[in-house]
Structures are given as structure tokens and as C-alpha cells.
Amino acid sequence: MKKIRIKSDRSYEVLIGASWQDEFSRLRRENQRVLLIVPSKLRSFVKDLKGVDVLLVPDAELQKDAKVLSKIWDKCAEIGLKRDDAIVAIGGGATTDLAGFAAATWLRGIAWYAFPTSLAGAVDAAIGGKTGINSRHGKNLIGSFYSPSKVVIDLKFFTSLSKRDISAGLAEVVKAGFIADKKILQLVDNPAQHLEELIFRAVKVKGKVVSKDFKEGKLREILNYGHTLAHAIEKREKFKLRHGEAVAIGLVFAAELSQIKGFCDSSVVNQHREILSALDLPISYERGALKELLKIMQGDKKSRGNKLRFIGLAQVGKPVWIEDVSEVEIKTAYARIAQ
Known about the structure:
Blueprint: E1 2-7, E2 11-16, H1 20-30, E3 34-39, E4 53-57, H2 66-79, E5 86-91, H3 93-105, E6 111-116, H4 119-125, E7 130-135, E8 138-145, E9 150-153, H5 163-179, H6 182-187, H7 195-212, H8 227-236, H9 243-260, H10 266-278, H11 290-298, E10 310-315, E11 318-322, H12 327-337
Parallel strand pairs: 2-9, 3-4, 3-5, 5-6, 6-9
Antiparallel strand pairs: 1-2, 7-8, 10-11
Helix pairs in contact: 3-4, 4-5, 4-7, 5-7, 5-9, 8-9, 8-11, 9-10, 9-12
């Protein structure tokens, strides 16, 4: 088992390779009462738990909804959840986002624990304290910065994931490699053999960033590499694409934009295409979608005023802020990923 300590609004451990059952038993002894949030498709994981309050929520992005959040608050009231109690999330990134926000808002903040069951959730959503839900206007527009008390990554969860879900999770790992850790880009050639090390390195990258900049003053923005376009694609697709699939497209777009702006050369762009394609991730998107995507991006949290902002790369491991982007440059970069 590997441990990483993250220091932000609170100090907490990320355990990689731990047993979720052992850790869950331990926290039940430490907290008076626990409310367990789990998506319906994962109910089999908790069916044998005795004496635990469980709330089943919809699967995937459907759970990140104000109505579902309200049901959690109602359940908290029903069971009398107090300030020394806790909320536990067992599920993917959508579940940890939802449960973390519920914990942040119930009684103005109670403890919560993340047990991510997806690779994307383990290396991204469960780490860093960003919690929230979606609105009809966009993804993650309602939320708070509120760190978990502990993150437990049990590798056994990933043995049942589809190849598509593993690949989608690896997109966030690859992103960490491009912005900070070149070694990741070597290990990802054989992800099955190096999965624990890849998770450890990706979590370490994110943990180091959020420990220095918890509320996205500026440094934390590098974690959004590829995400400005990715979130717009997700919304346009009504979340039918995996988050990591949209991120893969966004990464190539951001690399192309970086080259157009003169920050990096074509070898960096080609490296993006080769690595992501080898993982069976998409690297292109619909040619006629740009007008709609631009409109969605204008409403993104990462834009400032009327200007779109992107994270780019000067070279592998050296992200840059691209704040002065013309529509012509965006169209040129998009044309290179259009199909």
C-alpha cells in the first residue's frame, strides 16, 4: 500500500492499494453514524453491510442533480446526522462530487470519505476537494471546495471495469504526465502492468498542486489542461461520452492550440496523438460542432469576462496560460481535430 498526504483546507491521506472493507470498518468505529452514498449499479458492493444507512442514487452524471442532493439532505435529517457523523461515497467521480458537496452543505460541513470505484474517480474527482453538481447551464457550476477526510483507493474495484472505462480514466493520468511527470508517459505504454504506480504518480501530481493552490488562484488551473473544450463536448453530448474520452479530445486540441500560439512544436502534438490513440481514446470531434461548443465554452467557469482562457504546453512538464486567443486561432486548432 502507498500513502500520499495532501495538505489544503485540511490534511488528509490518500491510501492506494488499501482494502475498502477494512477502512470502512475502521471509520465506522471512529464515527457515531455513517451515511453511505452509492449509485444503484453498485448496490451489490454494499448489500451485505449490516446496520449501515445507505442511500442509493442514480448512476453516472444523473446523480449530480439538485433533486438528488435534496434527497440526501432529507436522508441526513431522517437519520439525524450530526456534526461528528460522516458521509461516505462509494462510486465514481460523480458520486464523490455529489457526496462531498452534500457533506459540505449539511450542518455547514461534516466529514466525508471517498472510496472511488472508477479509475477516473481515483486519480481526479476524489482528489483535491472540488465538490459539486451540474445545472442545466453547465457542468459543476454549483459546488464548493471541501476536502475529504480520507481517500481510499482499492485496486480490486478496477478489475471489473470495462476496457473503455480504464482508457477513460487513463486520460486523466496522461494529462498529469503532460503537465508535470514525464515518467507517466513512459509507464502508460503498459498500463496494466504499472497501474498502481500510474495512480500513485497521478495522485501525487494533483496532490502537490492542490496543496499549493486549493481554491484555484492560478496554479491549480494547470489541472484543467484539455478541460475547457472537454466540458463543452460533454455537455453537447449530454454526458454520453466518458469524461476521459472528452478530455482526450480536449488534450489534443490544447496541444494544437499551443503549437499555433508558438509555445510548443509539432513533436509535442504528435506525442499526444500517439499516446491517446494507443489507449483507444478519441482524438477528434465533429467538424460542424464548433459554433455550439464556443457558446458552451463562453459559459465555462474558467472563462474571464468575454475571453476564453486555456492551459497549454510549452513542452512536456511545462504548462502555460493562454489568455489571448483569437477566434481564428481557435478555429484553426479545431480544424486540426475535426473529422
